[in-house]
Fold CSN8/PSMD8/EIF3K domain-containing protein.
Amino acid sequence: MFSEKIRQLTALLEKQELEAPNGIVSIQLYSELFAAYLYQNDLCNARFLWKRIPQSAKNGHAELEQMYKVYQCLWNNDTAGFYKVINHDWSKHVSELMFELKEKIQAETVNLIGRAYSSIFENVFAEMTNQTPDMIDEMCRTLNWEIMPGAQPRLIMPKHPAADKPIVVSSEDQLQKLTDFVSFLEN
């Protein structure tokens, strides 16, 4: 639902940029569009927008510069750096979007860890997800992941999500479908 809202917002902002007199729009429009591209992980359009923004608008505008740092972290897959630069006092017109971006990246990272790791140290998990030990404990309980007590740092044992079982189709069925398809194309 939120993603659809962002797609609509992006289309509206792109239209406003295209129809702007002299091709120059407000800093607010640039920052909203840049944030929308970042949320959608549309890093190519974010890059081209950054190149389109007049240098005079970039200079001295801390929020746009901070968004560019967020973009750079996403582009370089620098998760730890991302969490450092996303924690900024964003203006009211982009604060919700940047908060949602942070939450989305965090959820995607946790999902990726759950699928890719059989175990991970708590300090590495904390750095990758920007969570405190209390938050990690709560998340592990929610996801039914094990935390091995004892040594410091603790070891987290993610439970891999149940994979969908592939549909098994016999060779004869596949051959019959292929024969039917070729027959259909010939007629």
Summary: The radius of gyration is 23 Å.
